[in-house]
Structure prediction request, 164 residues.
Amino acid sequence: MTLHEVLKNKEWRMDRMSDLAEQFPQQTLVSVKLNIPGPMKNNLRFQEIFLSIWPDLTKKSEFQSLFIERETGPEGFLICLDQPQRVKQDMIQIEENRPLGRLFDLDVYDESGNQISRSDLGKSARKCFVCATPAKECARSQRHSKAEISAAINKICEGYFENK
Ligand SMILES: [Zn+2]
Prediction:
């Protein structure tokens, strides 16, 4: 996958989100995606990872959830009735406490389309799961090689799927 495809997919995601915001103007919107820094090819393992948490996420969305398999990887959207800060709180819990939570980006938007940040809730920025740098920096600079990223993912998943 090229950087171009990643950027194209970002556009696609923004479009989906503005469609959903139009359809559900009063609700809290969550974008669910894997938090993989840089262009990695979608594969079966990514789908397994995504689906390990997705059923729990859909329970958090009393309203509607949408799962889409993209060439760039699985993506999901949740429409929630709860206050955005509350939803964000729940999502941070999942990111931090679930065995594979570190591999997810659970971005929460209020009814005006503003993203609720971790710092809004007094939390520090997320760290990259490969190194300890803030995740955004590694994603932006594509600091890690595919091999490095794969190794880190395998380590996080180690034991998880085997014990299922
Ligand atoms: Zn990193």
In short: The chain has a mean pLDDT of 89. The CA atoms of residues 36 and 76 lie 15 Å apart. The longest strand covers residues 73-80. The radius of gyration is 15 Å.
